[in-house]
Amino acid sequence: MAPKLIINDGRLAVYGGRLITSCNATLPPVPTGQMRIIYSWPSPSRDLDTCTVFLGGRAGYASGPLNEWLIWDSGDNTGPGPETVWIRLDDSCLAGQWTDQVLIQCWAGWFTPAGGRGGCTLTITYNGQTQRLTIPSVGTQTGSAEGTTLCATIRILSSGTFTVL
Fold first, then answer.
1. Are 120 and 131 contacting, i.e. CB atoms less than 8 angstroms apart?
2. Given a cut of 70, is residue 146 above it in pLDDT?
3. Rounded to two decimals, what is the model's pTM?
4. Any residues with CB less than 8 A from the CB of 136 and at least 6 apart, and which?
């Protein structure tokens, strides 16, 4: 299981029950074989809902159901800041859930009543490789973010690499 990580505003992090404070909080390393996807957005925008889809499971507000390979670490963040998802890629491959390649979809949508607007950033880390994507504009919704704005489709290869399509 992924370490318990909650990030707030890029300045504070709680990792393993310990508060890390600094202007540039250092994130813990991502264990080999796991992917971490961080959806982040700037203040003052509020309440970006996310939905990460992997092997039929969904992680994110009103998205469910999760599966044993997805960990929605941040919960429903209704303010500015990130939502984080961990994906146990190596474990799911070893369990026979996929062989050569598999896809992950990353969706986002501003919760309409909160009035958020603008874009977001996805930070994707897997096996020592990190890629940051800037999504300039995200749509609005009142339920699950799935079907609102497809921010990325990620192809994972069994060789341990990934590509954003």
1. no
2. yes
3. 0.83
4. 119
Which amino acid, residue 76? D
Q: Is 29 exposed, middle or buried (0-12, 13-18, 19+ CB in 10 A)?
A: exposed
In the predicted model, is pLDDT for residue 121 greater than 70?
A: yes
Give the β-pairing of 101-111 and 140-141.
parallel
User: Is the per-residue pLDDT at 61 higher than 50?
Assistant: yes
What is d(CA 68, CA 110) in angstroms, rounded to the nearest whole number?
27
Collect all residues with Cβ–Cβ distance below 8 Å to 159 and sequence separation of at least 6: none
Per residue in 16-30, pLDDT tens?
A: 444 444 434 566 778
Q: Are 75 and 87 in contact (CB under 8 A)?
A: no
What strands lie across the sheet with 34-40, from one edge to the other? 70-72, 83-88, 34-40, 120-126, 129-135
- Taking the mean position of all CA atoms in its chain, how far away is CA 145? 12
Bridge-based pairing of strands 129-135 and 140-141 is unpaired
